[in-house]
Input
Amino acid sequence: MSSTSPRSPCSPSLVGSGRALGVTALLILISLPIDAVAQATPPGLVEVREGGRHGLWFGLGVGAGGESYDLRPSTGYSDVLYRPTISLRLGGTVSQHLRLGGEVLSWINENGPAVESLSSALFVAQFYPLAATGLYLKGGLGIGRNAVDFEDGYGTGDTGFAALVGAGYELRLGRRIYLNPVVDLVGHRYGNRLGASYRERLVNFGLGILLQTGR
Output
């Protein structure tokens, strides 16, 4: 007499379902740590996101500047004299496309007992046509001064109008620091004590560091 036994827990249909659930669970467990590792920042590196201009900013730069002048009546600009330059900038960020601030740029020529200088104090605007890149165009207006100072304390010079056009690039090195190469053209116009006017200009090739506050 044959008898029918109840379905065993190890019947083929249940084994197949159990294996499928086990494989699915294993794949989920394996995939979770992989995604977490892929999204985590590697140790020792700083996560840098594009479009991160914000807050206050401060820049310090050095460079080589070519100075020349044009006396009146105009005879054309003189030969260019290259000497060191130094610049200081400070301002705020309006948006990802615009920074505003002030800049002081000085060209210095040590010539024996005399030190010649050409300095500009400017209000500047830096426009970034593409927010996701560091390229910017710069313009500025302000006052300019040329001066000659001697070791005995005597000095002379003229003060006039100054304007600047230029371009630069902010190469991001970290969350708050940029390497900043620039090219600037600065023009000065003076009226001297005798009522005559003359012009002076400076072409500056600079390299600086820019720091910004914020996150």
Remarks:
- The beta strands are 56-70, 81-95, 98-111, 114-127, 135-150, 155-169, 171-172, 177-191, 197-212.
- DSSP finds one helix and nine strands in the chain.
- The helical segments are 12-39.
